[in-house]
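FAQ: What does the model actually see?

It sees only this:
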Amino acid sequence: MIVEIVGGADEVPEVRVVDVDDLGALHLALGEVTDGEADGLLRDAGLGRLEDATTGFLDVAALRAAAQPSATGADWSQRFDGMVEHARGKGWLSGDGTALQVHVESAAGA
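And it is asked to produce this:
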């Protein structure tokens, strides 16, 4: 699953959740936005926040709500829960269990 922040010089940046059926990997992909813009967009969308240029935190409940309507597998919810538990085992889940730590990939180097 990928949380994208896309946009460019002529576009208003937006947050999108894509590849929702691929629960084997989760990352945040930034297009042509600054880190500050990305953080603000994530917060405005209620999906999370940017910690720094390489790390973000995504709200588990908000991510589920944004992704599930596009999911195609009948077992998606169980697989999503499995992804969260895998993250917990790796230390990638916040102490209160509400946020997933994710890697940030910048397509624009902004």
